[in-house]
Amino acid sequence: MSHRILVVDDDASIRETFEIHLERRGYQVRSAETGENALNQLEAFGPSLVITDVRMPGMDGLELLRRVREGSDADVIVITAHESMESAVGAMKAGAYDYLVKPLDLKKIDHLVSQCFRDRDLRRKASTAPEKESTGPEPHRLVGRHPSMIEVYKLIGVLAENRATVLVTGETGTGKERIARAIHNSSNLASEPFIGVNCTAIPETLLESELFGHVRGAFTGAVGPRQGYFELAGEGTIFLDEIGDTAPEFQSKLLRVLEEGEFYPVGGERPRHTGARVIAATQTPLEERVREGRFRRDLFFRLQVVGVHVPPLRDRKEDIHILADHFLEKIGRELGKEVKKLSGSALNSLLAYDWPGNVRELEHALTRAAVLARGPYLDGGDFELGSSTLDRDPSEDTDQSLEAMEAVHVQKVLREVGGVKRQAAEVLKISRTRLDRIIEKHGLEVPE
Questions:
Q1: What is the rounded (10 degree) CA torsion for 191, 92, 39, 11?
Q2: d(C-alpha 311, C-alpha 303), whole Å
Q3: Looking at the whole model, is its pTM more than 0.90?
Q4: Regarding beta strands 49-53 and 4-8, do their DSSP bridges make them parallel or antiparallel, or are they unpaired?
Q5: Which residues of the chain fall short of a pLDDT of 50?
Q6: Are strands 28-32 and 4-8 parallel, antiparallel or unpaired?
Q7: Measured on CA atoms in the order 324, 326, 330, 336, is the torsion positive or negative?
Q8: What share of the chain is helix, strand, coil (3-state, %, to 5)?
Q9: pLDDT of residue 135
Q10: Which of 181, 285, 159, 247 is nearest to 435 (CA)?
Q11: CATH classification of 162-309, choosing from 3.40.50.2300, 3.30.70.20, 3.40.50.1000, 3.40.50.300?
């Protein structure tokens, strides 16, 4: 007996296209114009797969998805011409088999439908239970319609349904913490704390105390016990940014947390339990750190249970316009000013630039332009992204000048503390490991 498919869309031409195409592939196909009509057909027709649009009059596709999942074991593929992070995450959280964006590629539809039915056969043989509906708070706001971001949104929806450890990778400024917050806020534990920690911003000597806490007398100045972030997070989420730059001693203790769900406060003799989820992030490939012997292989595999890669802005320039509109609305609201609009020349300037600082740099550039601009529109000249900047490799000015400033500042601090690296790291508020890396990179002199 052939598989049965129910197609739901308020556009008659799309329904007809699906019916003709899928019937030629040997499937039994019926269609419905509305969600309500689809529910009426659900019991009588008994489809194995429902393919539904999101935006329809009356019951929308996401509500239909939830109703289908409640009342049958049919799989659901959601399609839409109005893609957004919210609908993608919502669909995957509610148990959609997949989420597709129009215009649709019929070859991709064929592959996905075949894959869906293969998976159903495997589930039936394994006698696994169908997925259940999941509810939770609204997801953290992310913006972007590029296919690579749609895949990220789908992953967020899947990860919100479990407690797996996640490793988020991507260049600086791509929004790795936003992704972590979206996973947390989309889960059913969103009411629990989300605590973000930049591992390179805390001196190496203090990082363990910050995360694991300490007992009274653990070190000079520890006049009383102190809870660490893992205790304060409860059943929530700990986000560890720049995990690749942590010291080996810390890595071994974090591994124990991931393997055993427990840790020792600094100076403590009794382990304490933690139910916090760990989401880590890095802008440097951890595989390289492992090969160099600077990152534990076992910890790497523990962290990367699931990996989420955030693409750089230069690889999804189609998103620049909607990102700009989003940020300008946010900036206008925060500043209590008129929301600025982009002129054609401004948009061309933004599209021509490669954005080495990614989404963060775009937001900063728009904020500066919106603050200084006098009229309702932003022009190309309102951005410091003119030909003098666009015609150069950003590393020739921004990156090199920042690195030069870093070298001068670190060298000055090293002289002031007489070459004592521990003190220099504390003054600079960075880890000892990061300090050694800066010294090596710039060939700095360490006074004796």
A1: 120
A2: 20
A3: no
A4: parallel
A5: 1, 126-140, 386-401
A6: parallel
A7: positive
A8: 50, 15, 35
A9: 34
A10: 247
A11: 3.40.50.300
